[in-house]
Design goal:
Chain lengths: 341, 332
């Protein structure tokens, strides 16, 4: 019994590097692979930015187009373009958007905050409401509330996001006039302070709710099944035997343990949330990365698109590293220096 | 046997199964006096744990239902208590510990927090004071460096330490009764002995009664005052430990005792066992539930269930109880 403390030292220092740094180094080949795939797949798409520019100009001679291609470097062989692209990435340069005539990095950084705001709001909404629905449904399995919530979650799981967005606009903006139908701020109304926040919040409601519905359903089902699984757990019985009330048992003991699968799920969802944002931002003309990506595809602005894709993959990687950190917080058993008896 | 602390009478508990309700406890009665240690023994599936869980009405959350009977504790009928009063008793006047301490402790909360919670659920203490009490309790159950261990999570402790922590939690509010549901089953033999002697020591020190649930008669011998033998959801025999060990009256008790008296064996002979299996509870024989496995059973045993004789320190529900042994006689 006294020997429990003696096994402690071993597992922490292996490899010599701090864990976070080691994790970041592991990510480099992954990002290289992603960049390569992105580049190759986009090469398969027909047409380029010059075609679009020429089309928009209304008329362009083959000579002008050739000159443009030459100045953008699009006339060079693919492998040379690829090497040049990798060289740029290595120096953290995402290139230039020839259509918008701005550096890609600057474009991305101005569009990032709205997207983050949308994603985080949607995720929080999904987690909070999904947990609540899951907890309530698990309290009385097969009861009317469980049946109702199961129906609602199944529906919000199945309905396509863009369709839901459009219907929300029809109902809440067009018919009822409660909420703005698109954009992030009222154009021309130069609010400040609290009024600005209110304006932003009003614009945020529909896109955030729309984006969250799918994830809300996922969390509701996840929490419900996790809570049911924990229902018969020995430590729940212990809590009951020491005199804890049902709500305390549910929240303090069961839900605290149901957080573990939720955190895992949140990590997986970072990527799909970002792609969901493309649809929602397009429907609600939300000035974020997703909409920028959509525009880039439409106009064959490959540099911009590659930049967004690469940046998104970095974002997903960062989120997953952060999730690992959160996981250590909610589950002491995976803490790096956990001492085991 | 002066003051009765807990009295269980004619308790019937059933669980819902796919093929209808299944009676797990079929008329269980016994009593515990203040400061007394009673061992509830029987094979797996005899209803020991369900009895323990029925006392605190924990069976209700597990899908069970108490159909009939009375459980009175310090003069209060536990089966008709309000939910609030019941919660006050759970972990307050009655503490309970379980078989597998790793799964019985919340994996994501510190040991100290879990014990402090048990304190704060019943006493108006600040967080800090409750934590102090938790550390005090850990030192009461003889965990070395209690201040440090309180900050540990369950997976960081050894099996014996975990069970000590469980005991500390159950003792948080100085209970008058501690129910220990197979407290040593999941532990190695050395640790078992340590936990048992700790329980006996704490019982004497704190003057509490102990209901010890076990399938291991070896555990019972050193610690308990009285034995209650359970078979297929019924009490078949009860009495003082020394008397029952010396002269079991019920053939089933005799079988259980033979199975642990390995010192009388000659090497190379087969281990003693009770022939046959515990009958499934949904297909019990008409008469005595033990009759199909009993060498002494006759037609009467197979047609009518032997009643438990009323009163007395020694009781056995058997039509053909074993005679008291001859002086100096040897169990054949």
């Amino acid at each position: 019994m006294a020997g429990a403390g003696t096994l402690s030292a071993a597992p922490a220092a292996r490899g010599g590097l701090p864990p976070l740094l080691r994790r970041l180094l592991q990510v480099v080949p992954v990002l290289f692979g992603i960049a390569t795939l992105n580049f190759l797949i986009l090469q398969l798409a027909p047409g380029d930015v010059v075609d679009v520019l020429a089309g928009e100009a209304g008329a362009a001679t083959p000579e002008t187009m050739a000159a443009l291609r030459q100045s953008f470097g699009l006339d060079q062989p693919v492998w040379l373009q690829y090497l040049r692209y990798l060289g740029q990435l290595a120096s953290l340069d995402l290139g230039h958007s020839y259509r918008l005539n701005l550096p890609v990095r600057a474009l991305i950084l101005t569009r990032l905050p709205p997207t983050l705001l949308l994603m985080v709001s949607a995720l929080l909404l999904a987690i909070v409401l999904g947990s609540l629905a899951g907890i309530l449904a698990a309290r009385q399995v097969g009861g009317w509330l469980d049946t109702l919530l199961s129906g609602v979650t199944l529906l919000s799981y199945a309905v396509p996001t863009f369709w839901l967005g459009l219907m929300a606009i029809v109902l809440f903006s067009a018919r009822l006039g409660w909420l703005p139908s698109g954009g992030m701020l009222t154009i021309g109304a130069s609010h400040d302070g609290l009024a600005l926040l209110q304006d932003l919040a009003a614009h945020l409601v529909l896109p955030a709710v729309t984006l969250s519905t799918f994830y809300l359903a996922v969390y509701a089902r996840l929490v419900r099944s996790a809570m049911l699984e924990l229902h018969g757990a020995d430590f729940i019985r212990t809590a009951r035997a020491k005199g804890a009330g049902e709500w305390r048992i549910t929240l303090h003991h069961a839900f605290r343990n149901a957080l573990l699968p939720m955190v895992t799920m949140a990590g997986y969802q970072a990527a799909s949330l970002l792609s969901g944002a493309v649809l929602v931002e397009t429907v609600f003309s939300w000035p974020g990365l997703g909409r920028l990506a959509y525009e880039a595809i439409r106009t064959r602005d490959l540099n911009l698109l590659l930049g967004i894709l690469f940046f998104s993959s970095i974002l997903v990687v960062i989120v997953n590293i952060a999730i690992d950190g959160v996981y250590r917080l909610v589950d002491p058993r995976v803490a790096p220096r956990a001492r085991r008896a | 046997m002066t003051m009765t602390l807990l009295e269980v009478s004619s308790l019937r508990t059933s669980f819902a199964t796919r093929s209808g309700r299944l009676g797990i406890l079929r008329d269980v009665s016994f009593a515990i006096a203040r400061g007394e240690t009673v061992a509830l023994v029987g094979e797996s599936g005899s209803g020991k744990s369900v009895t323990a869980a029925s006392i605190l009405r924990l069976v209700e959350a597990a899908g069970g239902r108490i159909d009939a009977g009375r459980v009175s504790f310090e003069g209060e009928d536990l089966l008709s208590l309000s939910p609030a009063r019941l919660r006050a008793l759970r972990g307050g006047r009655i503490g309970m510990i379980f078989q597998e301490p790793l799964s019985a402790l919340n994996p994501v909360q510190r040991i100290g927090d879990q014990i402090a919670e048990a304190v704060r659920l019943h006493r108006p203490l600040s967080r800090r004071a409750a934590w102090g009490r938790a550390v005090e309790l850990l030192s009461l159950v003889q965990i070395p460096a209690p201040g440090l261990r309180a900050r540990d999570y369950p997976h960081q402790l050894s099996g014996g330490q975990r069970q000590r922590a469980m005991i500390a939690m159950a003792l948080a509010c100085d209970p008058a009764l501690l129910i220990a549901d197979e407290p040593t089953t999941a532990l190695d033999v050395i640790t078992q002995a340590q936990i048992l002697s700790l329980l006996a020591e704490l019982r004497d020190r704190l003057g509490m009664a102990l209901l010890l649930i076990t399938h291991d008669l070896g555990v019972v011998a050193g610690v308990a005052d009285r034995i209650v033998v359970l078979y297929a959801g019924q009490v078949v025999e009860q009495g003082p430990v020394a008397e029952i060990f010396a002269a079991p009256a019920h053939p089933y008790t005799r079988g259980l005792l033979d199975a642990v008296r390995l010192d009388t064996l000659t090497p190379g002979t087969a281990l003693p066992e009770i022939p046959g299996l515990v009958p499934p509870l949904d297909a019990l024989p008409a008469g005595c539930a033990f009759a199909p496995r009993c060498g002494r059973a006759d037609a009467r045993c197979r047609s009518a269930a032997p009643p438990m004789p009323p009163g007395g320190a020694r009781q056995a529900a058997c039509f053909h109880p074993l005679p008291a042994p001859l002086p100096g006689g040897h169990a054949a």
